[in-house]
Every structure is written in C-alpha cells, then in structure tokens.
Design a protein that fits this description.
elongated, 145 residues
Length: 145
Amino acid sequence: MSDMENFTPEEMQKALFSHLVMSLASSAMQHLGKLVNPMTNTTETNIEAAQSTIDVIEMLEAKTKGNLDDEEARFLSQTLTALRMNYVETTTAPAPAPAPEPPKPGTPPAEPPPEDKKRFTKKYDGPPRPFQSLELCAAEFSNHW
C-alpha cells in the first residue's frame, strides 16, 4: 500500500496545488539569480523568464479566486509577494562594476586607494538566504498538514 492511498482526494489536490506553486516559484527565483541552477551549478539571471513565471502564478491566483481555502489563498498570496519583492530587488540593483584593466607592461603599479575608515559594521549569523521568505511560506503551509 503506497503513501498516496492514505490521502483523501481533497488532501491530494491541496498537496499538488502547493507543489505546483512551489515549482513555479522556484523557477522564478532561479531566473532571478537567487537560486543555483541545478543543471549548470551556476546562478543565472533571465528577467523576462522570471516575469513570465510570476505572470503565470498571478494568472493562477486570478483564476482560482474564490475556489481556494484560506490557507491556500494565503500561501499563494505570500508566495507572490515574496517573488515580487525579489523581482524588484533584482531589477533595481545597480549593475556590477566593470573589472579594472590590467596594468600595461613597464608601467609602475598604481597606488592603492586610501582605506575607508568604517564607523559601523553589522555581523550576520551566516550567509544571506534570498529564498528565505518563500521557504518560510512553504514551512508555514506544511505545518498545517
């Protein structure tokens, strides 16, 4: 007897719906360069693909309005909010500075720029987790099961 037989059809549909939303959200985050592409093991940014994926999730929200229970609607709304915030963050981030040109042979090395004296520093417990808000949505959703 498989584990799938223990679920009611409604529970199965809830699980499949959340899986669909999470799959689309993961794809959007990957296109935003917030997740590593498991095929290439690199981060890649494709803003158009990210926008398209977010649009699909927005369409799901519009088409399922009134047909979701409160938990599913909240999960979908929180997922979209996290994706939109990450989209804005990615599209408004300043472009990375170009790499400095290597010195020409025979020229003396340039003097290093003066050190900036930092007045304040902030320490974090670990590396940044850009996908954390979506993970929290998923954790909250799964805690109700």
